[in-house]
Design brief:
Number of strands: 5
Radius of gyration: 43 Å
Shape: rod-shaped
Number of helices: 10
Length: about 375
């Protein structure tokens, strides 16, 4: 575990200080027995191997630390001073703080150290207070190491949780971006399929008028209609792209623009905006705008010159769009309004669409998106 500011891991510092303390107490030790010093040598060498291999070969480092602490604990009785006890405390505290060692292994090693300390002190007839003091010191050192171990484990779990949260947020953002791209692709596909399909039909009609009937006036009218279809399709495509750029106008503004264009080019139309403007998802704004455009286009096509009424009502429950116009004359009344694609698009936005006679002499298109 690294601390902030690029400081070395805390246990590296502790191990460095532990190495210095072990060396210091070995230097000032009063022991003269060669076999005691042989034990010190084994314990110190095992400690150095542990320090050198912990980060690279933990399977070797952990047993070396066990050897170091057990050897020092066994010397608590025959050693003349506190050197063996100090080494035992340092090594058992470090072992108890290892996060790579299991709880049962730590408990077993702490128990082994206690047995060795008590047994060696009793074997060498140490006073009772030496036995009790050394045992208590081993337990306190082990508890300090365990406390540090728990802190490190909590920090590691927190880091893992933060990483999982970051990955989840990144995946969520990626999924949202894919959904947005899919929506825009669908919008552009619908626009192009509708506009280019109608444009193809008009061009085929113009070709037939010229090739079969040589009716130039009718062909010219059809070509002009084709041009308008191309311009309208381009405008719809631009609005779909604008949704991706997040500069799509609000729903009331978009509907007002459509009404103004219809009033200027095709005939009288009344607009009624009711209620406060509420925020609706971009996909719903695009869908409702497309419904308004399609309804106005159908009104101009099937009931030319008739007055059109557009109502946009906003409220706590959602948004409701109504477009009403006179029914077309003749046997084709109420047919060919072509809102099937708009109904599917609105359903994808969580809305509903109904179109048909209102019981009188009007054709009514109703689109609604609930909050």
């Amino acid at each position: 575990m690294k601390s902030s500011g690029g400081i070395a891991p805390s246990w590296v510092i502790i191990q460095g200080l532990g190495t210095v303390l072990i060396a210091f107490f070995l230097i000032v030790s009063d022991d003269r027995d060669p076999w005691v010093w042989a034990g010190y040598g084994v314990s110190a060498a095992a400690w150095l191997v542990f320090v050198a291999t912990l980060g690279r070969r933990p399977r070797l480092a952990v047993p070396m630390l066990v050897v170091s602490t057990a050897t020092a604990a066994a010397l608590a009785g025959p050693a003349a001073g506190l050197t063996a006890t100090i080494i035992t405390l340092l090594t058992i505290g470090r072992f108890a703080g290892l996060t790579i060692a299991g709880g049962r292994l730590i408990a077993a090693v702490v128990g082994l150290d206690l047995v060795l300390v008590i047994g060696s002190c009793l074997l060498w007839d140490r006073p009772a207070w030496d036995v009790g003091g050394a045992s208590a010191a081993v337990l306190v050192s082990a508890l300090c190491g365990l406390n540090r171990r728990q802190t490190d484990l909590r920090v590691r779990q927190t880091e893992q949780l933060l990483e999982q949260t970051r990955l989840a947020h990144a995946e969520h953002a990626r999924a949202a971006a894919l959904d947005e791209r899919t929506r825009i692709a669908r919008e552009i596909h619908d626009v192009l399929a509708h506009s280019l399909g109608a444009l193809g039909v008009q061009l085929e009609l113009a070709e037939a008028l010229l090739a079969e009937r040589d009716d130039r006036d009718a062909a010219l009218t059809t070509i002009r209609r084709s041009r308008r279809l191309a311009v309208d399709g381009l405008g719809e495509a631009r609005e779909a792209v604008a949704a991706l750029r997040q500069d799509l106008p609000s729903l009331p503004e978009a509907v007002a623009r459509l009404v103004e264009v219809h009033r200027r080019d095709r005939g009288p139309v009344d607009l009624d905006l009711c209620g406060e403007v509420v925020a609706v998802p971009t996909v719903a704004t695009v869908a409702l705008t497309a419904v308004a455009r399609e309804a106005l286009t159908n009104a101009a096509k099937h009931a030319p010159g008739a007055r059109v009424e557009v109502l946009l009502r906003s409220g706590d429950q959602g948004v409701r769009l109504e477009v009403a116009n006179g029914l077309p004359p003749g046997p084709g009344r109420g047919k060919g309004f072509g809102l099937t694609g708009m109904r599917e698009r609105l359903e994808l936005a969580g809305g509903t669409l109904n179109a048909g006679p209102d019981g009188g002499e009007r054709w009514l298109v109703t689109a609604e998106v609930r909050r």
